[in-house]
Amino acid sequence: MKKISKNEKVRYQLFNHASKVVEGKYYCRAVNELMDSEIRFCNDCPLFGGRSIDENNIFMPQCCYFDIAVGFSDYMTPREQKERTYGLITAGLATHFPEYLEDNDKGNRFALIEQAIIYAANAHVGRHRKGTRMPYIVHPMETMMITAHLTNEIETIAAAALHDVVEDTEYTYHDIELAFGKKIADLVSEESENKREGQDKALTWRIRKEETILSTKGKTLEAKKIMLADKLSNLRASRRDYKVTGIKMWDKFNMKDPKQQKWYYTSVLGALSELCETDEYKEAMEIVGEIFSEVI
Fold this sequence. Notes:
- It is a single chain.
- The protein is mainly alpha-helical.
- It is 48% helix and 10% strand.
- The strands form 2 sheets. Strands 1-5-4 form a 3-stranded antiparallel β-sheet, with helices on one face. Strands 2-3 form a two-stranded antiparallel sheet.
- Helix 4 crosses helix 7, helix 4 packs across helix 9 (221-245) and helix 10 (258-271) packs antiparallel against helix 11.
- It is globular.
- It starts with 11 loop residues before the first strand and ends in a 5-residue tail after the last helix.
- Residues 4-8 and 95-104 have low confidence and may be disordered.
């Protein structure tokens, strides 16, 4: 099985993958575990994409989900599938899976999501996460995946994939509106910070973050869900860095003072308290407590 290089460009794609049984075990994507072949709940699974027949005339479930195209193969054994997924999660490439996007109009839903992913991938091509060689598109994808656990609104999920396009690329609100309509463009606009181009980002950091926090009060609930997903994705990345370098991880950011970073994240989560009962909000609060444990 081809392994993913850390510098390799990644591309998400919708796959319909056969769940093969080897030595009485198959890999279940929904629960991310090797399962006994006698235990199947595929017909009720949101990933279920139909059945195929293998070379022994045995029916195999088809799992329909997005995955990174690099290294993907229909010939992976159940254990290889499990190891691959574990590797993607460990690398921060697939913390949540956007498989729960399905409804009775699956084709149109997937088409819009696929369009948003491709658009975002093209907009962010060549960019990497700050201080890493991880392709930047990983962050919008994870934000989209987390958002899909907070809402079933298809436009909101698509907007989550696109949430950094206007803020960080040459594409404009008008471009998004032309491609996806006003509702999605408005949601993306709600997530876009005024970066004050041409000014020192370290010097404008505090006022930009104050504006973000203040604007949260007027955001729609769907926009708040994207915002929470965005911050949780960033916090997960920060926790991975914190476990390696400790408090020095903040040195790669425009704002290097961990006290200021703590103020920002606690203030943002305070502004998003409407979502405090969600697992995602609770996870974000837990991570803030962990990575700022040394900050008084």
